[in-house]
Design a protein that fits this description.
single chain, about 575 residues, alpha+beta, Immunoglobulin-like, 5-stranded antiparallel β-sheet, about 40% strand, transmembrane helix
Length: about 575
């Protein structure tokens, strides 16, 4: 009994010694800064960990990071390891602020840093910490949303243009959209930009170069305040560094910078009710209207075409053309709708046409009565009504129209309604109704089910209670499930951050580590490449798959010291998804 007690005490103290060796702490470059300065904070650990969770930087804006660095060295046979996550913070205002606790999981135990107090004072004459490449890039590149009209009418076309301003101090090599705006409350049409035309201009009084990246024509479909989502880009920015080549020329550092245009709100006015014509169908813009035929005279059984056409600038796709009124003795087919429009910088321009095919059957003269088309003119702020001229169709040869002697012209088109004797075939003549209250509840099926239900609930509650207790006691199983869930989460996060090397490889490394913890029960402290290779070989994993997994870990480590292209990141993501799938299948 004493020996067991002694072993337990020794084990307890050994665990305390091991835990005391783990260090996870936060360090800041300065504890007092000016409101126009920035501070760097680093979260450092002396053992590798998983699932790093930064604090809420309340009172600050993150302008750089996270930057991950790892140092591993051997001095006199003693290993020294350090890993850190760094951020650059910009204060939102003056005052005393507290940076909360960061968290990380090391060897199955969660560690937290100590909160840090930072004092922000008035602006200083010579701010420091401003030479970081990400900070320089954020200060010299801006994405602006330009709206042609922020107070349009309903269905009035407006243009939304996204302009990228770049300072002469930096260069932009490429860009790609990360989050494109959606316009659910608008009918929208993008304008094709064949080439990017770089121009010189100013931004907030400073000389800048700018380029129009995207332009969209919007037609609001609702009134009131409508929001326009921002456009977010990932831009490759070349920033001059402090290093120079052997000829003394300044070297440039390429960083990935995300830039977003600010969200905008427009206020849409309803169309006025005063003076609205009876046949108004929602046309807004500036239009011309015409009704024409390709023939004025023809023979019976020949066909002609009558075209109802609206042309101009406006919401040509969002209203209906007026219908032709034709004599009943003419055979008329459903109109063919044609649209000839193009979207330019001033909105949608072109025409829409309804083409009617008309076939007269008898000789005579048939008028096409005038048709009216109304629209709202934005420039004058009033409704306009356009009317066509009366057209006459002259059918020269064919049988004469027969008019019954006992009927007038007004009743010549009437037909007798013939009764088929089945006018009431949809009515049920035998509904099979039952009087209410005839069926009793006592000794019915529902009566016996409600009697037996409590008896069935007792064994079910016992079974589910045991299952729940087993799940609560299965600590290892819960850790495996959690690690597997985190592996999938970080792999998905890596896919979203393709184009941002720091965030991509950080998420990819977390995904690989959590996969090993979930599938092979390997702790982070045991994740050396030799150890991983040995375990995968023991599990009879294919040697090629094992080599690919080790290579992915090496790529994650190398990405901290060198830049990676988007193609390399896409290749590593595809390789990771394939390797994890193969290992999971073999296991």
């Amino acid at each position: 009994m004493k020996s067991k007690f002694i072993v337990a005490v020794i084990s307890f103290f050994l665990c305390q010694v091991v835990l005391a060796q783990v260090k996870f702490e936060a360090e800041v470059s300065r504890e007092t800064i000016g409101v126009n300065e920035r501070v760097r904070i680093d979260f450092k650990m002396n053992q590798d960990g998983d699932n790093f969770n930064p604090p809420d930087f309340r009172g600050f804006k993150v302008v750089g990071g996270p930057y991950q660095s790892i140092s591993n060295s051997w001095i006199n046979g003693k290993r020294t390891y350090q890993k850190s996550y760094g951020y650059y913070l910009q204060p939102n205002g003056r005052g005393d602020f507290t940076i909360g606790q960061a968290e990380i999981l090391i060897a199955g135990t969660t560690y937290k840093t100590t909160p840090i107090e930072i004092k922000v004072v008035a602006a200083v004459n010579k701010p420091t910490d401003g030479t970081n490449a990400e900070i320089v890039a954020s200060q010299n590149i801006h994405l602006v949303t330009k709206i042609s009209n922020e107070n349009p009418y309903l269905n009035e076309g407006i243009s939304v243009e996204y302009i990228l301003y770049v300072s002469p101090n930096i260069n932009v090599s490429q860009w790609r959209p990360v989050d494109s705006p959606k316009f659910p409350d608008f009918w929208s049409e993008n304008i094709d930009v064949s080439r990017l035309d770089v121009k010189d201009g100013t931004y907030q009084g400073e000389p800048y170069r700018y380029v129009s990246l995207r332009k969209t024509i919007l037609y609001p479909q609702k009134t009131g305040e409508l929001s326009l989502e921002p456009l977010t880009l990932s831009v490759s920015v070349e920033v001059p560094s402090d290093r120079r080549d052997i000829f003394g020329r300044r070297l440039f550092e390429t960083v990935q910078q995300r830039v977003s245009a600010s969200a905008k709100t427009i206020k849409v006015k309803p169309l006025p009710q005063q003076g609205k014509p009876a046949g108004f169908t929602g046309a807004v813009g500036s239009f011309n209207f015409s009704v024409t035929t390709n023939k004025q005279s023809l023979d019976a059984s020949e066909s002609l075409e009558a075209k109802v056409k609206v042309s101009g600038n406006g919401n040509l796709m969002l209203f209906q053309l007026p219908k032709l009124t034709l004599p009943a003795s003419l055979e008329v087919y459903e109109p063919e709708h044609n649209q000839d429009t193009r979207t330019g910088h001033n909105g949608v321009v072109g025409s829409i046409t309804d083409t009617y095919t008309i076939v007269p059957q008898q000789k005579g003269k048939y008028p096409i009565e005038p048709v009216s088309f109304s629209y709202f003119d934005v420039k004058s702020g009033s409704y306009k009504v356009l009317s066509s001229k009366e057209l006459m169709i002259d059918v020269e040869n064919g049988p004469m129209a027969s008019i019954p002697s006992n009927s007038g012209s007004a009743s010549s088109n009437k037909q007798e309604v013939i009764s088929t004797g089945s006018q009431f075939r949809y009515l049920k003549l035998q509904p099979n109704l039952k009087p209410m209250g005839e069926e009793r509840f006592f000794k019915s099926l529902w009566f016996w089910l409600l009697i037996l239900l409590p008896l069935l609930a007792i064994p079910l509650s016992i079974i589910f209670g045991k299952k729940r207790k087993e799940r609560l006691n299965d600590v290892a199983g819960k850790q495996v499930k959690k690690a597997d869930k985190l592996a999938r989460k970080y792999l998905s996060e890596a896919k979203k951050n393709i184009g941002d090397p720091n965030a991509f490889y950080l998420a990819l490394e977390k995904s690989l580590h959590n996969f090993l913890r979930a599938k092979l029960s390997i702790q982070t402290s045991e994740m050396s490449k030799d150890r991983i290779r040995t375990i995968l070989t023991e599990k009879q994993i294919d040697s090629g798959t094992t080599d690919d997994f080790i290579q992915l870990l090496k790529n994650c480590e190398m990405a901290r010291y060198s830049l990676s292209s988007q193609a390399a990141m896409e290749q590593d993501y595809g390789q990771a998804a394939q390797v994890l799938s193969l290992i999971d299948k073999d296991l």
